[in-house]
Amino acid sequence: MSAANWRLAILVGLAISALAAAALPASASFWIVGAMVALVAAAFVVNAYRRRYYGGLLVAPAIAVLFVMNIFPLLWSLGLSFFAYQSNQQSIRFVGLNNYVKVLTNEIAAPDNWHALTNTAMFVVLTVSAQMIVGFLLAMLFAKQFPLRKYLLILVLTPMMLSVVASGVFFTYYYDPTFGILSYVINSITGGQFILMDSKAGAVAGIVFADAWMWSPFVMLLALAGLVSVPKYLYEAAAIDRVSAWRRFWSITFPYIRGLLMLALLFRTIEAFKLADLVILLTKGGNDTMTISYHLIRIANEQNKTSEGAAISYIMLFMVIVLTNLYLYLANRRNREA
Amino acid sequence: MPDSISFWERIGWRRSGGVTEAGWDRTLVVAVVSLVYFLPVLFIIFTAITPQELALSVPPTISPTSLFGLIPDQFVFTPTLENFGSVFSRVLTPGGQPEPTGFDLYFFNSIVIASVSVLLALVIGTLAAYGFSRYPLKGNDTYLFIILTTRMLPAIVVIIPVILMFRAMGLSGSYTGIILLYTAFNLAFTIWMMKSFFDELSPDVEDAARIDGSSEAKVFFKICLPQVIAGLAATFVFGLILTWNEFLFALLLTGPDTRTVPVAMNQAVSSGGRGTDWTLLAAIETLFLIPVFLVTFFLQNHLLRGVTFGTVKREPCRPSRSAGSPRSSAHSLPSGMSTLPWPRAKSSACSALRAAARRRRCA
């Protein structure tokens, strides 16, 4: 039964599952079907091991967990985006691409939501570039080995470890016009009343500052990893040859950290597209700081328009995939050139 | 920096074996920058030890000490540890007795859920990454990209199917459900990180072991795994930080017995109708920060070394099989360096250069 045991297992599994589904109540048959799936899986594993198909064997558990917990819900919500479905109602009706048409014509074309989209683009550009610049500068500071480096580094890494809820709420405290430290300092200098969140520029600056503060350490850590990996003899050789600092950076340092910066850029851009929590905590979308992700939460959670929310998120996913592929393509092309 | 060993170095204020390249002047500059960067966290910690009635005072009381008269008295408060006690037990109804708030349970939940799910993701993800790296499947890159895609969609979209699924399976409000979900949540990052670590290793050693009769399992456990311990540490820390603070899934999928601290923190702070209780929030956050801070601190050396080792060269790099083959290193050096008069005869410098050139090609 060595090669055909998985066929036997599938047959037995199907038969017992069908019997259980027909004869037993739903709760019991659910577990029996589960056990049969496990049996078939075990047969596959034994078969793959005997045939030395290690690749599939090693990847299988991860794919299984990802499938059950991520990909299956993803496909489910993709399916939902073709139906008219509200999570607080029972009725469900197939509408084809109507949700996408509705979202693209009514939702996105409506000035508010168009603003949410442009705001998201603005936040992506501002927060990611701020994080990249600050993170990179911090990494440059920490690149050399100096006394107490370990203890100072952990101070800079701490913002990343804070809960977004706590740090977001505390930033409202810092920005608060009456109690806040920022307003207190500026008021005592100018004498007037300073309210940061009063204008769009101020609100955006507040959100970008908080986000950049929290996540620059992530970029710093990756950039620092690149910086400390540059072999020192390259710098020594450059010093012998009196290469200018500018040239030294672009010819020696930058090639070593490019890959890591790309990785940081990739992960931070993906996260920046999903920016909602800080906006909710700091402005609640006021002062024209609505982002598409917050809009999505409102639609899907507060208005219960589940399927429209799914449609919006797949449009978002499409944009992120295009951007990501662009990154990966550029990164790989640069790799091949080098 | 003079060569003599200073007092501070004597008492161990430096990384063991580390070579100090920059002196105390650099430390001073970085200390100023780090402290400024750390200020918002410092305010949270100070708020945690502020007496509750001073939390919203104008002018803001910002410091527990006057720093020998540097800070005017109006900004100084007397520190108290009361807030930490009220995290675990405080008066919940007006005029009542202090009651336990259940935060000991929430801290326990956070620790169990985060550590188990990150470790599980590490085990499953490392196996998968090894598979992706050493036994590429058909369409390997497509699988990897799909795995990355699972991190791209906003959580709010996936959450409704997940809630329905958990209800059907009886998993909502249980440890199993949230741990499995977080495991999947961490897998994408774990696989991408660990794959790049395995790509770094030279397969020559493994081939040698195979020729000597090692089984595949032995190659993995005895040869590959010990070389990526740093990577495991780095991935563990990143995963822990992300899972530790996760809010949305925890809010919707944990029950009263499995609630994690971020959710409980949100409820404790906003309940009562008096607006935000700043000192309480700060106290919870300070306590909540300690475990992940300690883990990061103790794994810090691994973190730096690990990330370096792992992600600099992301393409699989196979060094040439014939050792010492006369591959020209000049044309693949950084463009600015190709005209330097290399001491080609000096073998040590030359081999080091060749190694650098090999790294450059793969970076």
Description:
Chain A is mainly alpha-helical. Chain A has two domains: 5-96, no CATH class; 101-337, MetI-like fold (Orthogonal Bundle), CATH 1.10.3720.10. Chain A contains 14 helices and two strands. In chain A, strands 1-2 form a two-stranded antiparallel ribbon. The longest helix of chain A has 32 residues, at 111-142. The two termini of chain A are 53 Å apart. The model of chain A has no long low-confidence stretch (mean pLDDT 80). Chain B is mostly helical and 363 residues long. Chain B has two domains: 7-100, no CATH class; 103-311, MetI-like (MetI-like fold), CATH 1.10.3720.10. Helix content of chain B is 61%, strand content 2%. Chain B is built from 15 helices and two strands. Chain B has a two-stranded antiparallel ribbon. At the A-B interface, helix 3, helix 5, helix 6, helix 7 and helix 9 of A face helix 2, helix 4, helix 5, helix 6 and helix 7 of B.
Give the gist of this structure.
Chain A is mostly helical.
